[in-house]
Here is the input.
Amino acid sequence: MADIVFVSRRHSGQRIDRAVQVLVSLAALGICAFFFWIVSDLFAHGFGELSWSFVTELPRDAGRGGGIASILVSTVAILGVCLSVSLPLGTSAAVLLAELGAREDRFALLVRRCLDVLAGVPSIVFGLFGNAFFCVALGLGFSILSGGLTLACMVLPILIRSTEEGLRAVPNEYRMAAAALGMTRSRTIFRVLLPAAVPALVVGLVLGIGRAVAETAALIFTSGYVARMPTSFLDSGRALSLHIYDLSMNVPGGEAKAYASALVLLALLLVLGSAALGISDRWLQRRMIRI
Amino acid sequence: MFRFDRDRLLVWWLRIASGVCAGIVLLIALFVVRESLPALREVGLGRFVTDASWHPTSDAGSGLYDLTPMLAGTLLATFGAVVLAAPLGIASAVFCQFYAPTWAAQGFRRVVSLLAGIPSVVYGFWGLVVLVPIVRMLAPPGPSLIAGILILTIMIVPTVALIADSSLGSVPESYLLGASALGMSRTHTVLGVALPAASSGLWTSILLGTGRAIGETMAILMVCGNVVALPDSIFDPVRTLTANIALEMAYAMGNHRSALFVTGLVLLGMIALLVAGAGRLTEERRRG
Here is the structure.
C-alpha cells in the first residue's frame, strides 16, 4: 500500500490524521505491552525454579516440592490417545471433503456444517460431554483414555481444516497425471495426494497438539486430578495445564512450582508453534520455486 | 465371486469416518440434553430463573436452582470484555494495515499470534498473581468482575485483531486508490471507505471474540471470585456459567449434576445463536 499517496489537507485534517495515527499506534503498543508483561513476569518468577530435576522428579507434598515427571508422562499419554484417534479420523474426513465431496454434495455440506459447530463448542461443554459419554456411559471412569478421547473430539476440526486446505492446494495436474497413468483412486490418494499434502497435515497436527496441550477445562472431570505416575491408560492422570490450575488455586504455597510449570508449558507451546511456522514457510518456499 | 474393490472400500471408509466426525456434534448435543432432562423434568425450567438462590441438592424438592446470577456473570463479563476488546482489536488492525511500516506490522502480527497461543490456564494464573493483587489495592476483595473483564479482554483481543486485520487486508485496492484519487486523507479513507467495506468481517471478528469470551472457563474461574450473587459494582466477585460447571461437577450427584448439564445447555444455546449470526454474516459477505 506504499504506492498510494494520501493527500493531507493542511491544518485540521492533518491534525486529525496525526491524532488517529497516535491512537491506533497506542492500541497496538498496549497489546504488545501486555504480552511482554505476562511473559517477563513468568520468566522472572519461574526461571529460577527450573532445573533438570524439576523435569525428572515426581511431585512431592501436593506439588509444592519435587518435579513434574509423572505429570509430563500423563500429558504425553493423553496426547498419544488423542492423536491416535483423531489423526486417522481427521485425515479421512479431510480427504472426503477435499477430494470426493463436490461443493454441492449434501453429505459433504452437512459434515462441514457440523465441524463448524464443533469448532465453536466451549471446552467446558466438551468436558461435560466427555464425563457423561466416555467416563459414565462407556464406563471408562476418570482415566487418561477418557481425557484423550475427549480432546480428540476437540482437535478434529483443526486437523481437518488444515489437511483439507493442504489437499486443495495440490495442483490439479497431479490428479490428471495420476488418472492418465491409470492409477486407481485409492492409489492416487495414498501415493500422490496425501504425500504432497504432508506439510499441511503436519501443520494441522502441530496446531492440534498445541490446542490439546493448552486445554484444561475439558480435562478436569475426564482425565482427573491424580498426580501419581500412571501405570495404564485406564489410570487417572493429571495434565500439565491442570497441574498449574491445581497448584495455584488449591495448594497454598504452590505458586513457585506453578510458575515453573507454566514456563515449561509455554516453552512446549513455543517450540510447537515455531515448528508449525517453520514447516509451513518452507513448504510455501518449495512450492514457489517449483512453479 | 466377490470382487475386492479397493476404491469402493476406501470411499465407504471415508464416508464412515466423516460421519463419525460430524456425528460428534450430535452426540454432544444428545448427551448434554439427555443428562439435563432429569433436572428439567423434576425441577422444571421455570425454577432455574425464579428460585431464591443456588443451593442445588440431588433432591429436587429441597434444592434451590437459580441460575440468574451466573447468567448475569457471564453476560456482564462478556459484555465488558467485548466493549474493551473490539475497539482495541480493530484499532490495532487499522494500525497494521494503514499506518505501520511493514516491519512493525509483521512484528505486531507475530506478537498477537503468540498472545493467541497462550493457554487460558496461564492467563488465569497470571491474573491471579498479578492482576488480582492490583485490583485488591484499588478496591478489596480483589477477585472480581473487573479482573475477569480485563483477563478476558487480553484473551479475545488476538481473535478480534487477527480477523479484523485479514478482513481489512481484503478490501479491494481499487477502493483505496479511488479514495486517494478523490483527495481523501488517510483518516477519512480508513473511516469512510475501509471500515465500511470490511464491516461484515469486522462484525464476524467481534462475534467470534464474544464466543470465545462466553466459553472461557479457566482464566475466569481463577480471577472472578466465584461468589454466587448479582454484583453491585465491578469490584464485586461473580461466578460465570462456565465456572459454575467447573467448580461443582467434581462432587455433584443426581439433580445437582443434572442442573450443571442444564448450565451447559444454556452455554450451548448462546454459542449456537452466535454461530448462526456469524454464518449469516459470512453469507452476506459472499453475496455482497
